[in-house]
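Incident log entry.

Two folding requests arrived from the same account within the same minute. Monitoring flagged them as a possible duplicate submission, but the sequences differ. Recording both here for audit purposes.

Request one:
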Amino acid sequence: MRYWLFKSEPETWSWDQQVARGERGEEWDGVRNYQARNVMREMALGDRGFFYHSQKTREIVGIVEVCATAHPDSSTDDDRWECVDIRALQTIPRPVTLDQIKSTPDLSEMVLVRNSRLSVQPVRDDEWELICRMGGL
C-alpha cells in the first residue's frame, strides 16, 4: 500500500462533502497539472491518502481510500486528464496543521513542505505514520 495527500479548498470540496459521498466515493476531478495527474496514475486500489483543506485552514482533516484507479476525468472532454475516485474512511481526531508539519523536523522533506502548490502528492511511509500519531490515530 502507498500513501498520498489530496488537497482541496473547503469552499470547493470539503471533508464533510467527501464523507457524505459514502462508500461510492467521488472522482478527484478537475486536476489540471501534469505532475499531479501522473501521481494519480501511480495509485492502486486500497491506497490511502490524507484529505487536506488548503487555503484558510491548511490542515489534514481526514483519511481517504482510492476506490477507483486512474480513468478519464468526466469534468472535461480533453483526454489528457485523468483522475482517481476516493472515499472517506476516517476523520482525523486532531487535525494536523501545515504549521505543525513545518515545525516537525522529521517532516521537513515532505512534498507538502517543499512543493505546497501540488494538489495531489505522494507521502512516505514514515511521514504517514508520524502524521497519524500527531492527529491522534
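Request two (distinct sequence, not a duplicate):
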Amino acid sequence: MFDHKLNLKEILATHPSLMRDLELVQDLNLPNWCIAAGYVRNFVWDYLHNQESNTPLNDVDVLYYDREDETEETEKRYESRLKDKFSEYNWSIKNQARMHDRNHENRYVSVEDAMSRWPETVTAIGITLDQMNNLEIIAPYGLSDLFELKVRMSPLFRDPEYFKTRVQNKNWLKTWPKLELIEQ
C-alpha cells in the first residue's frame, strides 16, 4: 500500500524554506498549531507538475486552537511578530476556536475539526512539528486527492457554488493542468 504521509514528507523535504518556516511559527508557542492550505497544497502540486519554480503564495495560513484567548487582536499580534521575523510572507494567523462564529457553525473542537469544514479536501492539509521537531501531518480527509490531483468539495462544506467559484477564481486548473475537478 502506498504511504501518502511518507511521500508528502519526502516531497516537503525538498522545500527550501520548510524548516525555517515551521520553526518561526513554533517559536510563537501557539497551542495546537500548523501551517496549512496553499503552503502545502501548492508546493505538492508544483512538484507533481515538475514546475521549475514555486507558484507564489497569496498568504501563509497558520492555524491554532486556543479557547482561552479568542480575540482577533491576539492573532494580529502573532502576525506582527512573524512579519518582524520574516516579512516576505503575508502571514495569516487564525485561532480556529473562534472561526465557527464567522462561518455560522457549531463550535469547532480542534484545528483538524475546523479544517474538515474547508471548501476542498486538498486544502484541508496542515503540517506542524512535534516536540522532537519531527514533521507531523494533519489531514482530515487524507492525502489521496492531493496526490491523485483531484479537487473535490469537502463533505462537510455546504456551498457548492462557492466551491466552484473559488476553484475558478484561483485559476488552479490553468496553473496546474493535470488537476481534475470532481463535482458532486
